């Protein structure tokens, strides 16, 4: 069983400590209350806590001193909130710069504090949370899914690349219930050479063609009792479309080189980023297949048309990254959230996911670096940038965009790029390090 997240409260004021404890108990938080830093230190060093709420002024030493000492000792600290009086705001701001999560000023709103802490202490139940997004568009899709999952046998998902069509397909599969081990088989029709596609989809008998040394079940058979997700259906060659239509209509499959019709009972989800109707008009997609698969058609909107999902997804993706990298605590600053909101996301959620992952890896502190977020900020976005960040950050973004563009134009070769920029190679290396630029890796998910 996973450990319940635990709060460390360091507060010497009895009345304040008791009110907080009463409320935390009511909320069901797991927590320990320490009256001074000395008592809390050993437990913090052992990494027993998932979040800390600490006063700054404490009897033995300052909560800030404890924080900086633990941090200086190389410990990865949990999210740390400071309670401060009005007079100590400068100190609290300095602590934020040093990596503390946030500070609250006395007298504070207890509900708001509980909300902040709950983010770390209340394990999210995936069952009652949104899974696809908080925008009206995604919520609408989410409300339709349970009915579609139980009633539709064929579903078409369309939307730009990276919007989350496969995520929706997996959600449909999950909602359909059935045996826990029911298969979800995903095939990218565009990624399989035409000559191999038929055997991949429908399987083959032994000796059906050269190299077919034994019987092989195709993906239809493999997905029997579960879900078959055919991605990039628009890339399926016309002859294969005829066979697919037959399988959908007859609900059975004949292996290549075989004669026996094998019944297949499955949910078929087809996805495409192309306009199938246009393809039908052009003659590159069969009209009968189009009508057969698009009875239930869900259009997943691009991320730029559902901007409310951007911060929600960013937090979700960040949490997922932190879960996969125990000991790493990263968070989004308001500036980073703003930059995410302003971006157009042509690569949709996939691009956002990669941006978050890149920034997690390249940012040294707990807070994601703005500069590490985008490989090449688009000049238009820079010009429309928010002035809240100040001139320095703006100039750095321009520098990053320009250096990155020159590197791109020279295949990321340092010597040629440095020459084009009119600077030394060493200078370019240093600049790249400072700006968080590195040659793009091969695309991955
Ligand atoms: N709601 C979401 N929550 C978390 N991650 C998501 C969500 N939606 C999409 N993603 C992530 O974004 C990436 C792209 O999603 P997905 O593969 O489902 O997109 P797609 O529309 O099927 O893309 P393509 O058309 O290129 O195959 C994946 O890594 C996926 O995990």
UniProtKB/TrEMBL annotation:
GO terms (BP aspect): phosphorelay signal transduction system; regulation of DNA-templated transcription
SMART domains: AAA (SM00382), REC (SM00448)
The Response regulatory domain, residue ranges: 6-121
Keyword Transcription found: yes
Keyword Transcription regulation (UniProt): yes
Keywords annotated in UniProt: ATP-binding, DNA-binding, Nucleotide-binding, Phosphoprotein, Transcription, Transcription regulation
Domain Sigma-54 factor interaction intervals: 131-361
InterPro entries: AAA+_ATPase (IPR003593), AAA_lid_NorR (IPR058031), CheY-like_superfamily (IPR011006), Homeodomain-like_sf (IPR009057), HTH_Fis (IPR002197), P-loop_NTPase (IPR027417), Sig_transdc_resp-reg_receiver (IPR001789), Sigma_54_int (IPR002078)
GO molecular function terms listed in the Swiss-Prot or TrEMBL record: ATP binding; sequence-specific DNA binding
Residue numbers bearing the 4-aspartylphosphate modification: 55
Protein name from the UniProt record: Sigma-54-dependent Fis family transcriptional regulator
Species this chain originates from: Pseudothauera lacus
């Amino acid at each position: 069983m996973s450990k319940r997240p635990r709060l460390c409260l360091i507060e010497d004021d009895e009345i304040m400590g008791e009110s907080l404890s009463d409320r935390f108990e009511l909320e069901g938080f797991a927590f320990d209350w320490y009256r001074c830093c000395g008592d809390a230190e050993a437990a913090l060093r052992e990494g027993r806590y998932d979040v800390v709420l600490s006063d700054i002024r404490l009897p033995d030493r300052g909560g800030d001193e404890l924080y900086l000492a633990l941090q200086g000792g190389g410990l990865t600290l949990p999210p740390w909130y400071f309670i401060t009086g009005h007079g100590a705001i400068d100190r609290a701001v300095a602590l934020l710069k040093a990596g503390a999560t946030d500070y609250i000023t006395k007298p504070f709103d207890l509900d708001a504090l509980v909300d902040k802490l709950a983010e770390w202490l209340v394990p999210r139940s995936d069952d009652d949370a949104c899974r696809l997004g908080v925008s009206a568009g995604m919520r609408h899709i989410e409300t339709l899914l349970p009915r579609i999952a139980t009633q539709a046998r064929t579903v078409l998902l369309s939307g730009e690349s990276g919007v989350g069509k496969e995520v929706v397909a997996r959600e449909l599969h999950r909602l359909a219930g059935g045996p826990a081990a029911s298969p979800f088989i995903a095939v990218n029709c565009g990624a399989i050479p035409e000559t191999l596609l038929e055997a991949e989809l429908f399987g083959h008998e032994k000796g059906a063609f050269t190299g077919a040394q034994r019987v092989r079940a195709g993906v239809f058979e493999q997905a029997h009792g579960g879900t078959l997700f055919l991605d990039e259906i628009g890339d399926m060659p016309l002859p294969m479309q005829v066979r697919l239509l037959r399988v959908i209509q007859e609900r059975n499959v004949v292996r290549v080189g075989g004669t026996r019709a094998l019944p297949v009972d499955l949910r078929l989800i087809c996805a495409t980023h192309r306009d199938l109707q246009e393809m039908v008009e052009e003659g590159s997609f069969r009209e009968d297949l189009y009508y057969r698969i698009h009875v239930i058609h869900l259009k997943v909107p691009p991320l730029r048309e559902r901007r409310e999902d951007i911060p929600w997804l960013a937090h979700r993706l960040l949490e997922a990254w932190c879960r996969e990298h125990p000991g790493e605590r990263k968070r989004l600053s308001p500036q980073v959230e703003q930059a995410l909101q302003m971006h157009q996301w042509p690569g949709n959620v996939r691009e956002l996911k990669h941006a978050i992952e890149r920034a997690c890896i390249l940012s040294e502190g707990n807070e994601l670096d703005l500069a590490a977020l985008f490989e090449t900020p688009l000049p238009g976005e820079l010009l429309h940038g928010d002035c809240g960040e100040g001139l320095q950050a703006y100039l750095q973004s321009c520098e990053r965009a320009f250096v990155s563009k020159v590197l791109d134009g020279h295949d990321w070769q340092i010597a040629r790029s440095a020459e084009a920029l009119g600077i030394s190679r060493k200078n370019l290396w240093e600049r790249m390090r400072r700006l968080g630029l590195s040659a793009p890796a091969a695309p991955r998910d």
